[in-house]
Specification:
Helix content is 0%, strand content 48%. It is mainly β. Strands 2, 4, 5, 6, 9, 10 and 11 form a seven-stranded mixed sheet that branches. A four-stranded antiparallel sheet has the order 1-3-8-7, with no helix packed on it.
Length: 126
């Protein structure tokens, strides 16, 4: 079992930045691909970004490409999502998700992930 705890959400001024954290406990995180999804009111949950277990490869949805960054710190068992130049359409609850995978494998489909965090609200204050 892996437990994921998210932190770092909040209210951000237009064009501002913040960093979400996804800390894992219960089992080593190093063999898990991790992704971020978001769910905005009135919209379906959507894929945001993913990072492979090695951390060597990262992927982003077109809507966030160039503005968001994803990284992982294996020593801290934590994955980060850096949100820059926030837009109103970035307002959503953000979820991290993890699944055990082969090296360099990742998924954009939420159903492929086994473990989920509780969600963290990010709001553009504009």
């Amino acid at each position: 079992q892996v437990q994921l705890v998210e932190s770092g959400g909040g209210l951000v001024q237009a064009g501002g930045s913040l960093r979400l954290s996804c800390a894992a406990s219960g089992r080593t995180f190093s063999s898990y691909a991790v992704a971020w999804f978001r769910h905005a009111p009135g919209k379906e949950r959507e894929f945001v970004s993913a990072i492979t277990s090695s951390g060597a490869s990262t992927y982003f949805a077109d809507a966030v490409k160039g503005r968001f960054a994803i990284s992982r710190d294996k020593a801290k068992n934590t994955v980060y999502l850096q949100i820059n130049s926030i837009l109103p359409e970035d307002t959503a609850v953000y979820y991290c998700a993890a699944t055990s995978t082969y090296v360099n494998t990742w998924y954009a489909e939420a159903g492929r992930y086994t473990y989920w965090g509780q969600g963290s609200q990010v709001t553009d204050s504009s």
